[in-house]
């Protein structure tokens, strides 16, 4: 996979040529030129891939007689063009029975990528499901999502983005509230 990315960047070593950072030696020649495209520079997807954050209260979701929880997550950034990166996000979790028995439990899981100004660059809600077999008290789920290309550049480097994952409680049914009657 890195060989394919290196071919995209036009380099033969393990550093992938990207669109921000320190210009390569070939680009820092003494002859000034007017670039028609973004200046290409070194890009290290492992070091500069944004971190994943799970907001408070978004790591679990109650679904029927089970509680869905996020247990592990990871991300991988791949250069997908001269000024864009595709981020692959993997999430694993569990459905732990609180009561009841075997069955399939599901929950809405949201993935959001935002820039430093908190503008959403990508968001998606996935429905994850975990089956709990008879006689067991938990089941697991796993999902991998690949974002649309995220635009990066000198003013908007990849590490200025933020990845948030968590169960989306916006669609959850709230218990009805009692209305107060005036007398």
Question: How would you describe this protein?
Answer:
The chain is mainly beta and 183 residues long. It has a domain at 49-170: Immunoglobulin-like. 7% of the residues lie in helices and 49% in strands. It has helices spanning 2-9, 45-48, and strands at residues 16-23, 41-43, 52-53, 60-63, 66-81, 84-97, 103-114, 120-132, 138-146, 150-151, 162-167. The strands form 3 sheets. Strands 4, 5, 6, 9 and 10 form a 5-stranded antiparallel β-sheet that branches. A 4-stranded mixed β-sheet has the order 3-11-7-8, with no helix packed on it. A hairpin with a 2-residue loop joins strand 5 and strand 6 (84-97). The model is unreliable at 1-40 and 171-183 (pLDDT under 50).
Percent helix range? under 10%
Number of strands: 11
The CATH top-level class label of the domain at 49-170: Mainly Beta
The general outline is elongated
At CATH level 3, the topology of the domain at 49-170 is Immunoglobulin-like
Helices, by number, come to 2
Protein name: DUF4232 domain-containing protein
